[in-house]
């Protein structure tokens, strides 16, 4: 079902079903497990570990939370409970905090129907968008990540190298180059069997922000997704990227907050 006139409720239901309830592993060696009313991913020490979906009543919520803590800590893994604003019970965030989870900054789930987005954005003069296909390109993406977000990028380097080697049809990575300098980078995860592609990691080094590079990287990835038959783009948008995405035609649907548990 392609929704040309956006029905927010129907689109959110489709997102929940295809990307959360029926989640697929996001890389080689990764498991998606369904236990009771919880769907979780176990990615191991180098991957993403966490709860993707839970259909919980008030009476069962605390026991389900305790069960996930026991499972992941038993494996020696930190993990994340990815909570969305419409998840139930309504006080699930409070229950997670009471159980020892730490909330990270809230973001906005935004979805764009590719056919209706404004995708004519080009990079500024002197900047070119280069596909990432080898370890050297991955190093450039990791370098941008560290400079743009001030965070360690070892996990990103490992994950991207693994995906490009073992499952290249499910990931697109690009870097924006100003001469020989990497100034922005981003990736897109293509989820087989769904209508969704996810935009991740869009970051620009401070000196190059405000020049339209982020918009150009969104447009570049959207064209790739459309060429491969995907209908929608999904983004967990920060407060900085949300206004840009809205101008491109993305729709905010709900909030998303990572609740992190340290083993």
TrEMBL record:
SUPFAM superfamilies: Acyl-CoA N-acyltransferases (Nat) (SSF55729). Residues 127-263 form the N-acetyltransferase domain. It comes from the Bacteria. It holds the Pfam family Acetyltransf_1. InterPro entries: Acyl_CoA_acyltransferase, GNAT_dom. One of its GO terms (molecular function) is acyltransferase activity, transferring groups other than amino-acyl groups. This is N-acetyltransferase domain-containing protein. It comes from Streptomyces afghaniensis 772. The lineage of its organism: Bacteria, Bacillati, Actinomycetota, Actinomycetes, Kitasatosporales.
């Amino acid at each position: 079902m392609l929704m040309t006139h956006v029905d927010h409720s129907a689109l959110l239901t489709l997102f929940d079903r295809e990307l959360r309830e029926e989640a697929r592993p996001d890389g080689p060696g990764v498991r998606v497990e369904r236990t009771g009313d919880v769907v979780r991913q176990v990615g191991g020490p180098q991957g993403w570990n966490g709860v993707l979906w839970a259909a919980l009543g008030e009476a069962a919520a605390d026991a389900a939370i305790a069960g996930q803590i026991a499972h992941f800590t038993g494996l020696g893994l930190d993990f994340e409970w990815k909570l969305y604003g419409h998840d139930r019970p309504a006080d699930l965030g409070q229950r997670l905090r009471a159980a020892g989870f730490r909330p990270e900054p809230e973001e906005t789930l935004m979805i764009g129907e590719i056919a209706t987005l404004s995708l004519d954005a080009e990079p500024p003069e002197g900047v070119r968008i280069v596909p990432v296909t080898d370890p050297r390109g991955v190093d450039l993406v990791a370098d941008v990540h560290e400079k743009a977000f001030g965070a360690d990028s070892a996990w990103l380097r490992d994950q991207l190298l693994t995906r490009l080697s073992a499952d290249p049809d499910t990931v697109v990575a690009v870097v924006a180059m100003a001469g020989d300098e990497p100034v922005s980078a981003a990736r897109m995860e293509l989820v087989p069997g769904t209508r969704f592609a996810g935009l991740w990691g869009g970051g620009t080094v401070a000196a190059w922000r405000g020049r339209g590079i982020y918009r150009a990287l969104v447009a570049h990835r959207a064209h790739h997704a459309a060429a491969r038959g995907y209908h929608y783009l999904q983004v967990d948008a920060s407060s900085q990227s949300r206004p840009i995405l809205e101008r491109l035609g993305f729709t905010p649907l709900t909030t998303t907050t990572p609740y992190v548990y340290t083993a």
